[in-house]
Amino acid sequence: MKQVVAISAMLMLAPAIGSASVFQDMLARLPDTNQELRLHIAKTPEILGVIKWDTAGEVIFPPANTLAFHSDSLVLDNRDELRALQQQAGSGKTVTSALSPDRLFHCRSTPAICLVLDAELLGTQPEPDNTGFAYFQRALTWFYLTITLAIVGIAAFFLLLRRRPTTPSDPESFAIGAVQINPRRSTCVIDGQEQPLGARDIAILRHLHTHQGEVVSKDSLYDAAWGRDYMPNSRALDQHMLALRRKLGDTELIETVYGQGYRVPG
């Protein structure tokens, strides 16, 4: 029966009863004198016993050398456990009795006092010491926070994709690797950013694209980008290719085949 009471108390979520303010009110109603306190315990069924200490750690209630009451034995039999709990209770700590699951111990460090309470009459669990449930709540909070951040991140990613500059549909556009070239706009799109290209840039890239995977000779590129009006020993193509690679941001996109020409991946 005691185990059933304890389980029922642990499962009942009654914040109004289990809050610290209830225990605070209960302590505030305790009389100051020993005689009045005994009467108060007798008239309050949920309070099974009370134990108080002075600043030196001596028990001042129940008073020594007086007629023992049943409530006195409840606290004195658990004196060591209650004292240890009281010393670490701070502003308030509530636990279930290890020997009697139907009883709750609520203690305060200042004033130095512990109450032995009837768990069934209170109908609640000792929330301040419910470390397992508190850990579960923290884990659940972090889980929801992680899910929320993931959703925000995914939404931001797709929003960024929608705002990325894209090359308008153009039958003349073509791609080399990850670079999209739009001859009509004289631009290319690299990593979502639109970059301007010159006429010779586009002519060189188009010619290389037409012969993807093949080695294109320098003479062929001169013919495509400069026409026939170029000096046979000119370094114009090599210099222009250096500048074009910088625009594309990828020095390996256009491969140099030494002694033969240039090539782009097929």
TrEMBL record:
Can you cite a GO biological process for this protein? phosphorelay signal transduction system
Q: What SUPFAM superfamilies does the entry give? A: C-terminal effector domain of the bipartite response regulators (SSF46894)
- Say if the entry is tagged with keyword Signal: yes
| Taxonomic superkingdom | Bacteria
Query: What InterPro entries does this protein's entry cite?
Result: OmpR/PhoB-type_DNA-bd (IPR001867), Sig_transdc_resp-reg_C-effctor (IPR016032), WH-like_DNA-bd_sf (IPR036388)
Would I find Cytoplasm among this entry's keywords?
no
What PROSITE patterns does this protein's entry cite? OMPR_PHOB
Q: For this UniProt record, give its keywords in alphabetical order, as a comma-separated list.
A: DNA-binding, Membrane, Signal, Transmembrane, Transmembrane helix
Report the residue ranges that make up the OmpR/PhoB-type domain in this protein.
171-266
Name of the protein this chain belongs to: Response regulator SaeR
Gene name as annotated: saeR_2
